[in-house]
């Protein structure tokens, strides 16, 4: 029978940064993704080179995917990233990208198509890092709950930011459906988010009415709780 695919949240996204690493792990996440372009912008190339590995910067007890799929090759054969913070341009050739990935020691790496082609030419020694690929079906992407739940577990890992993005908007999962807790119908709904759910939030018996109120008055706190619920739901349904 199909099983729930393994959710891989993105820690370097806006939504992903809403939770602490401990929060993510309490929600049942054991494998998380970091985007190389985001790391090149912050904390920056020089800092990354100074690390003994990613886990010296992200003290994560689970496994990490370093995703380099968004790095684009220019006509000169370089991979350029322009920082959103100060406009700095970081430029690396393929060999330097591979050397950086290897030095950061992720458990897995995802390459862009052009980097994958360069990998065939340069043949870097990955030193135990396992390469994942959307084309080979070992790494997929999903942006909706229904699409995620339709993926069979043997289809590989599924990177998804939508559970956290939805939670930020007050959209919460129950019985394969999405509830908008900002809707007034939940203002007097004193049931838990999802009956039988064992996430850290539902175990404390917080109600839909409570989160309806919280989203309007202290949304950052509400979002942190709801992200944990949505992520746990995806992992267990």
**How do the helices and strands follow one another from N- to C-terminus?**
EHEHEEEHEHEEHEHEEHH
Structural class: alpha/beta
Strand fraction equals 15-25%
Number of discrete domains: 2
Question: What is the C-alpha radius of gyration, as a whole number of Å?
Answer: 19 Å
**Level of helix content?**
25-40%
Give the number of helices. Answer: 8
- Low-confidence regions: none
Principal-axes geometry comes out as elongated
Number of strands: 11
Strand order of the largest sheet: 2-3-6-7
Main sheet characteristics: 4 strands, parallel
What does this structure look like?
The chain is of the alpha/beta class and 237 residues long. The protein folds into 2 domains: 6-143 and 149-159, no CATH class; 162-236, no CATH class. Helix content is 35%, strand content 19%. The chain contains 8 helices and 11 strands. The protein has helices at 21-26, 36-50, 94-104, 113-122, 145-149, 162-168, 208-217, 219-236; strands at 6-8, 31-35, 63-68, 78-82, 89-93, 108-111, 130-132, 139-141, 157-159, 171-174, 177-180. The strands form 4 sheets. The chain has a 4-stranded parallel sheet with strand order 2-3-6-7. The protein has a 3-stranded parallel sheet with strand order 1-9-8. It is elongated, with a radius of gyration of 19 Å. The model has no long low-confidence stretch (mean pLDDT 91).
